[in-house]
Write a structure and sequence with these properties.
With 185 residues, the protein is mainly alpha-helical. It is 57% helix and 0% strand. It is built from 9 helices and no strands.
Length: 185
């Protein structure tokens, strides 16, 4: 009833698309999330049937989720993240700007963009793959050397970045000096 009154007051009809675009096709965000479910399932070598059994669905329902034909609710997404051993954010990683712009709140035009923040590297697929590969190294000596190599590379990278910053700062003229353009020659 509240929405009916709001419709009369605003004189704007409310149309429920039930998660679909105006043309009736699945929302691109739902398609993206479903594609990420498929990606992770196949990376694990898991069948749709096995995934369905693990979360109490038929393989046909899993197919619909993976195509974006059926929307995935929050509790189901949580279950999928546990079964597929990824954080919930994994399903939204690598989303292109055009897809993100298709969210219902963006389409309604009632949004203010939230302040941007850097994503936690621990939630990225690359980190997960690196950790899994590291722990597949069976020889403890080799694993320790890979660990030390990674730390050395990170330190070298930080040192190079710090050196580059120092060089740029030292190359800047002091407050009383002016910068002269190079002579044409």
């Amino acid at each position: 009833m509240t929405s009916a009154r709001a419709t009369k007051e605003n004189n704007v009809p409310r149309v429920s698309t039930r998660g679909r675009t105006a043309t009736g096709s699945p929302n691109p965000i739902d398609v993206h999330v479903g594609g990420r479910v498929r990606l992770r399932r196949t990376l694990l070598g898991m069948s749709q049937e096995k995934l369905g059994d693990a979360i109490g669905l038929t393989f046909q329902q899993v197919q619909k989720y993976e195509r974006g034909a059926n929307r995935i609710g929050a509790s189901r997404l949580w279950d999928l993240s546990r079964v597929l051993d990824v954080p919930v954010s994994f399903f939204f990683d690598d989303m292109i700007e055009g897809t993100a712009a298709q969210s219902p709140r963006m389409l309604a035009g009632t949004i203010e963009e939230p302040a941007s923040f850097e994503t936690d590297p621990m939630t990225k697929r690359e980190t997960l793959e690196l950790v899994r590969a590291y722990y597949r190294i069976t020889d403890p000596q080799v694993r320790k050397r890979v660990f030390e190599l990674a730390k050395a590379l990170a330190s070298a990278s930080e040192a190079a970045k710090s050196l580059a910053t120092t060089v740029v700062v030292e190359a800047l003229p002091s407050s009383g000096e002016s910068v002269q353009p190079p002579a044409a020659g």
